[in-house]
Amino acid sequence: QVQLKESGGGSVQVGGSLTLSCTSSGYIYSATSVAWFRQAPGKEREGVASIYNGGTGATIYADSVKGRFTLSQDVDKNTAYLQMTSLKPEDTAMYYCAVKTTRGLWGGLRPNEYPYWGQGTQVTVSS
Questions:
Q1: What are the tens digits of pLDDT across the range 79-117?
Q2: Rounded to an integer, what distance in angstroms lies between the CA atom of residue 17 and that of residue 58?
Q3: Exposure of 26 by Cβ count < 10 A (0-12 exposed, 13-18 middle, 19+ buried)?
Q4: Three-class SS string for the chain?
Q5: Regarding predicted confidence, which is higher, 125 or 27?
Q6: pLDDT band at 27, cuts 50/70/90?
Q7: How far apart are CA 17 and CA 7, in angstroms?
Q8: What is the helix (H) or strand (E) element at residue 86, kind and residue range?
Q9: Is the pLDDT of residue 59 over 60?
Q10: Number of continuous H segments (helices) and E segments (strands) in the chain
Q11: What is the CA radius of gyration of the chain?
């Protein structure tokens, strides 16, 4: 069984910080790709950050969060994190973690590449 669960969401004021966690059950983070996505009501699902565990360890971030968000992992704890700083109202969304386990190309910020998803955790940034 592969199951992901996000936590750490909540409400924060503009300029504040939050750290989201994604813990796996029955899986270790030797995955090809691990990513965070977000979706606001009426908006398309947006890739936020991704790391490639299939070789290079490279990361990619959406332009909208670059310099403010950081994706990290603790492999021994089967946990991925999304550190968010300098939060803006437009960061308000449901945040999801996702994992791709198959060998091959990096999933990057493309949601259709990821077969495993968590249930999401809400982040609300108020002014």
A1: 999 999 999 999 999 999 999 988 778 999 999 999 999
A2: 24
A3: exposed
A4: CCEEEEECCEEEECCCCEEEEEEEECCCCCCCEEEEEEECCCCCCEEEEEEECCCCCCEEECCCCCCCEEEEEEHHHCEEEEEECCCCHHHCEEEEEEEECCCCCCCCCCHHHCCEECCCEEEEEEC
A5: 125
A6: low
A7: 14
A8: none
A9: yes
A10: 0, 11
A11: 14
The residue among 4, 2, 7 whose CA lies nearest residue 82 is: 7
Of the candidates 51, 35, 40, which has an alpha carbon nearest to the alpha carbon of residue 88? 40
The one-letter amino acid at 36? W
Please give the mean pLDDT across all residues of the chain. 92
Among 9, 39, 41, 11, smallest CA distance to 121 is for 9
Task: Return the closest-CA partner of residue 83 out of 98, 63, 105, 65.
Answer: 65
Query: Which amino acid appears at position 44 of this protein?
Result: E
Report the amino acid identity of residue 69.
Answer: F
Q: Is the pLDDT of residue 34 over 60?
A: yes
Nearest to 98 by CA among 25, 37, 26: 37
